[in-house]
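Per your request, structure below.
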């Protein structure tokens, strides 16, 4: 009978997007801020400034070198555990969204700001486990290879036994392997 709230978007993806907004914000712009705007169809995180160092919105979702606009803030966030590694934030956001059956956010530059827009339309997969779920597990483990099966299950919204079956099928298909012991080891995604 206890109420159980289920967020519409993965909290970790939103946390990562907010951390990126603060780390890469242009603090030289007077009166600027990091803003969150909620609309009927999307949630936007807006950070004052431009994409620096020749980055484009498309490049953010591919392997790229990270050059934080504010390295001291990035260092503090890293030491505090708010961000894990530099240059992986947008990749992690995309993987987390896919792991929940959702499309990655759109990134755009608009009126001197970088806008990360998360769609609120329900694009979740339902019913039987599909190839999308397998791809979501692979995407998640590519970004966070040290996750346990229960942690993967929580992230993809499946039970631990269903997740074990998915991982077993991925291992049998040669797409995933375990490196090291059950505790302290990591997953290796084979593309």
């Amino acid at each position: 009978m206890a109420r159980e709230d289920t967020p519409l978007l993965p909290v970790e993806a939103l946390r990562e997007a907010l951390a990126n907004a603060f780390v890469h914000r242009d603090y030289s712009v007077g009166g600027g801020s990091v803003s969150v705007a909620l609309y009927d169809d999307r949630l936007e995180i807006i950070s004052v400034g431009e994409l620096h160092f020749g980055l484009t919105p498309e490049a953010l979702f591919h392997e790229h070198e990270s050059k934080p606009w504010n390295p001291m803030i990035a260092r503090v966030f890293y030491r505090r555990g708010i961000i894990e590694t530099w240059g992986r934030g947008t990749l992690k956001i995309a993987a987390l969204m896919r792991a929940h059956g959702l499309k990655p956010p759109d990134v755009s530059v608009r009126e001197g700001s970088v806008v990360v827009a998360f769609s609120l339309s329900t694009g979740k997969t339902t019913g039987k486990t599909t190839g999308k779920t397998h791809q979501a597990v692979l995407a998640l483990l590519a970004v966070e290879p040290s996750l346990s099966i229960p942690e993967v299950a929580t992230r993809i919204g499946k039970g631990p036994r269903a997740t074990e079956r998915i991982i077993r099928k991925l291992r049998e298909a040669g797409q995933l392997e375990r490196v090291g012991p059950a505790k302290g080891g990591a997953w290796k995604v084979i593309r």
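The chain has two domains: 11-119, 131-189.

Regards,
D.
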